[in-house]
Amino acid sequence: MPDTQPESIAYGRLMHRAMRGLIQTVLQDVADHGLPGEHHFFVTFDTGHAGAELAPWLKERYPEEMTIVIQHWYDALEVDDEGFSIALNFGDNPESLRIPFEAILTFVDPSVEFGLRFETNTSGEDDPEDDPSPPETPDDPEDTPETPAPKDAEVVSLDRFRKTH
């Protein structure tokens, strides 16, 4: 048994790892067997992530994030433990992309109203749920700053991904 143990269980980090594993499993199944039925995916990813690879003109057009659709035309879908690569058609120009699982911000399958959203922590600190200490509160309730609702439990709205008939 190790001499030191963590002070808490990193549930947030473990959940993100499990959700990324689910995406990996789904994409590997699609790579092996194709998209079943009406399934299709909207994948939003951080184009500035160190492992993201995309054509310079796409990076220029989408400097922060980009949403791709995996549906009718895609090619060369390859999945590994770190991420996936795929060729997609952009205005009759096929382009190859490499997307690390760590760069994924949202993964949505509107055909079954399924969606995952990953919160990013740009400060380099551990996830807030990894910190076991309660937040400090002032003695006088009048001094309590208004705190926005936590984003960790945010629900992805699927409305923007729905087909309009």
Notes on the structure:
- This protein is of the alpha+beta class and 165 residues long.
- Helix content is 18%, strand content 27%.
Which segments are poorly predicted (pLDDT under 50) over 5 or more consecutive residues? 122-155
Number of helices: 2
Query: What level of helicity do the residues show?
Result: 10-25%
Main pleated-sheet profile? 4 strands, antiparallel
Strand order of the largest sheet: 2-1-6-7
Structure summary, number of beta strands:
7
List the helices and strands and how they pair.
Elements: H1 11-33, E1 41-46, H2 56-61, E2 65-70, E3 74-79, E4 83-90, E5 93-100, E6 104-109, E7 114-117
Antiparallel strand pairs: 1-2, 1-6, 3-4, 4-5, 6-7
Short description:
By secondary structure, the protein is an alpha+beta fold. 18% of the residues lie in helices and 27% in strands. The termini are far apart.
